[in-house]
């Protein structure tokens, strides 16, 4: 029973930044990763479409016997987490969200930039999160269309990605922020380029560690933790070309 894998889902390769934290926090678990690279990016699509794709993939993953689902995609969480929980009330479902609360804890009256997809930033879920902290902090939304594609093709550094970042962040960087929240699971793979553009001062935060710890807490509570030998990791993708599968391995082992 406890040997059943934990499903980890993303629109593409970004969720691997969450999977690597999950493996660190839960080394004895089996994981089944599914990336929907054939349909990535999700972030510029209408909410209904993102919701439908997420529900369909969740159904497949549960049909494969997964004991829990980690939605390792902020965009899919914003569009579909409520529907997923309504559809599978007895399943453990964890959805990653931009780590705004963590940033506010570190900088209670600070200036906080949230980089995320257009879909994540326009959804009600993010508005509700922002409302909780907007009184005390200066929260700046930075939609970053185009960044996900760099990760999907394995271009993690260099002048093109830095130029794209400079362009997307130009209105947000008029003042130096205290923290930059990476509210899309693809962006941690661009951390070096993001650091080059935002400078040395701001702390760069993401929600992978919090999501992994929450997954552990939920499995423990349900008596579903696996113990004993190291777990296995299966990587799957809707675009399973040799290039994509090699890139999955490379990203999973990236620092
Ligand atoms: N990795 C996803 C996220 O965390 C979305 C990327 C996309 O498909 O636009 O938001």
Question: What order do the helices and strands follow?
Answer: EHEHEHEHEHHEHHEHEHEH
Query: What is the radius of gyration?
Result: 17 Å
> Can you list the ligands bound to this structure?
D-glutamic acid
Number of helices: 11
Largest sheet, strands/sense/barrel = 5 strands, parallel
Distance between the termini: 33 Å
Mean pLDDT: 97
Strand content: 15-25%
Account of the 3D structure:
There is one protein chain. The chain has 255 residues and is an alpha/beta fold. 44% of the residues lie in helices and 17% in strands. The strands form two sheets. A five-stranded parallel β-sheet has the order 4-3-1-2-9, with helices on both faces. Helix 2 packs across helix 3 and helix 8 packs across helix 9. It is globular and about 55 Å long. It starts with 5 loop residues before the first strand and ends with a helix. The mean pLDDT is 97. Bound molecules: D-glutamic acid. D-glutamic acid (DGL) binds next to helix 3. D-glutamic acid binds next to helix 3.
């Amino acid at each position: 029973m406890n040997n059943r894998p934990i499903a980890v889902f993303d629109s593409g390769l970004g969720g691997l930044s969450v999977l690597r934290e999950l493996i660190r926090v839960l080394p004895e678990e089996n994981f089944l990763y599914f990336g929907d690279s054939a349909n990535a990016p999700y972030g510029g699509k209408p909410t209904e479409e993102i919701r439908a794709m997420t529900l369909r993939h969740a159904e497949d993953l549960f049909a494969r016997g997964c004991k829990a689902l980690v939605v390792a995609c902020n965009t899919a969480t914003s569009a579909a987490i409520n529907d997923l929980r309504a559809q599978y009330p007895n399943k453990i479902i964890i959805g990653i969200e931009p780590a705004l609360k963590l940033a506010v804890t570190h900088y209670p009256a600070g200036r906080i930039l949230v980089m995320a997809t257009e879909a994540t930033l326009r959804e009600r879920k993010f508005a509700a999160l922002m409302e909780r902290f907007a009184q005390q902090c200066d929260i700046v939304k930075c939609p970053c269309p185009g960044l996900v594609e760099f990760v999907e093709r394995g271009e993690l550094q260099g002048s093109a990605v830095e130029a794209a970042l400079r362009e997307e962040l130009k209105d947000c960087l008029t003042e130096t922020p205290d923290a930059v929240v990476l509210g899309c699971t693809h962006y941690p793979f661009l951390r070096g380029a993001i650091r080059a553009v935002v400078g040395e001062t701001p702390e760069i935060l993401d929600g992978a560690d919090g999501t992994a710890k929450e997954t552990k807490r939920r499995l423990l509570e349900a008596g579903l933790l696996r113990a004993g030998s190291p777990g296995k990791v299966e990587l799957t993708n809707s675009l399973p070309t040799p290039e994509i599968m090699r890139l999955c391995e490379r990203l999973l082992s990236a620092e």
